[in-house]
Amino acid sequence: xxxxxxxxxxxxxxxxxxxxxxxxxxxxxxxxxxxxxxxxxxxxxxxxxxxxxxxxxxxxxxxxxxxxxxxxxxxxxxxxxxxxxxxxxxxxxxxxxxxxxxxxxxxxxxxxxxxxxxxxxxxxxxxxxxxxxxxxxxxxxxxxxxxxxxxxxxxxxxxxxxxxxxxxxxxxxxxxxxxxxxxxxxxxxxxxxxxxxxxxxxxxxxxxxxxxxxxxxxxxxxxxxxxxxxxxxxxxxxxxxxxxxxxxxxxxxxxxxxxxxxxxxxxxxxxxxxxxxxxxxxxxxxxxxxxxxxxxxxxxxxxxxxxxxxxxxxxxxxxxxxxxxxxxxxxxxxxxxxxxxxxxxxxxxxxxxxxxxxxxxxxxx
Length: 365
Hints:
This protein has 365 residues and is mainly beta. The chain is built from two helices and 25 strands. The strands form five sheets. Strands 1, 2, 3, 4, 5, 6, 7, 8, 9, 10, 11, 12, 13 and 14 form a 14-stranded antiparallel β-sheet that branches. The protein starts with a helix and ends in a 13-residue tail after the last strand.
């Protein structure tokens, strides 16, 4: 068992004697770290990610996505159990799966309580590339059930953030538009639980048919306060009813069901990447109110509880206007089961109607 209090004291004491290169202890480290720590990201050749930190960001179904800030919640209470990184406060652990990219064959690293395959790490001693001091790194071992090897990387996402990915062993593919940068994960002890943090919040009041949103002061990513329990979405179809909510009375027209990156090979990450709002009481009214209040021209709901905004989208993401194309956007909204809020990497896409102009939904045949 690795005692971070001992390690931390040793690192501080050793600072006065730091040289160009530290001395690596020969005793191997345990794969258990019960003391809380923060995860730092290092790649000295890439200043855009070097010495940044892993943050948690609430996603659908109780999952937490992993980002390098400014997106997400600074997290100071990770632990390691049998090589698996846990966050006990949220009852989640780091896993790999979903959003596999056909371009570079990387896969999403995220955190969940569901039984997805674990990301397995081994603590090792190493020398800090900047200071030469001894540090503890989380060397990636494998994606559970897959061949040994590979590494963790990060790639540009939105609002200046980077998302975490898994790059398999022997992979030589590179996405020239969104390179996944290889990184080292470093254990930083937080013996006192880390500093207190304050997060931007949006309050949503929900009824069965509508939500009123108090929008944030800027069109940046936000976290919603919520008291409901969210579960993984179940795809639902309704015979005889088109799976979208008519928002023309509020000045928004439905364009169609747009694909996200998983179903395309065109490069962009999100169809809409201007702002994101997440809530366990999400409705289309809440999403349109949020995007409209912040001046965005397009809005879309996804995965029951996500709202995305933007001023443009790639032509390759233009939805089809066939009845069959609507089938992918059939997840019921978390805040109103009578509405549809996208699907699994499919976006129910709306456009703001011009003031005084026509406001008509697309026609599907």
